[in-house]
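residues and backbone:
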Amino acid sequence: MPRTRRGRERAFAIAAGAVLAAYNNALGRHDWHDRWYVPLNACATGAALWAGAASGLTAADMGTGRGCWRLGRPAAQWAGAAGAVWLLLAIVPATRPLFGDKRSASLDGREVAYRAAVRIPVGTVLWEEVAFRGVLQASLRRVLPLPAAIAVASGVFGLWHVRPTWQALRANDLADDTRSAAAGVGAAVAATTAAGVLLSWLRERSGGLAAPIALHLTTNSGAAVAAWAVTRGQRSG
C-alpha cells in the first residue's frame, strides 16, 4: 500500500475518533441539542457514512452493505437476554430502586413511547452504531489489528458517555462533590467501554450492524420503558 494512502487512512481514523470523543460531550451541553436531538443525529449519521465512503470505506466495510443486515442467533439471544433482564429487574421489588431516575418521573406514556420508538432508535442507537461500530471501527481496522481496533473504538465509546453520565448524576442529586461525581463517571465510562467491546464483537461476528443495533436498541429502549413503568408504579402506589 502506498505510504501516502496509509497516511491518509491513519489520519482519517484519528480524526474520526477525535470528533466522536468530542461530539456528544461538547454539543450535548446545549439546550438546542436536546430539542433537535433526532434530526441532528440523523444528519450526523448520514454525514458519517458520507465521510467514511469518501475515505475509501465500502458499505460492506462499514457494515451497511446489502448482505450485512442478517441478525443472527447470537444477536437475537443477547437482545432477548437484555429484554428479559430489564423485565426481571422491574418486577422484583428489591431491584426497582435501580430505576430511580427523576427525569422519568415527569414523562407521560406518549413521551415514553416517542423516546422508545423514535428518539432512542434514530437519535441514539442508529447514530452511535453507524459512528462507532460502522465508520470508526472500519477505519481503525485499516490501520490496526482487529483487537486493537475494537479496544480503541470501545474506549472512545466510553468517553462518549462522560457528559450524559455527569448530567444524570446531577439530575438525581448523586454528584454532591467532585470526588463522588468523578467516581460515578469513571464507572460509567468503564461499563460503556465494556459494552462497546460486546457490540463490536457482535458486529464482527455477524458481519454487519444489524446485530449490535438490535442489542443496543433492546438495552436502551427497554431501560427507558422499565424506568418509566417503575416510576409510575411508585407514584400510583
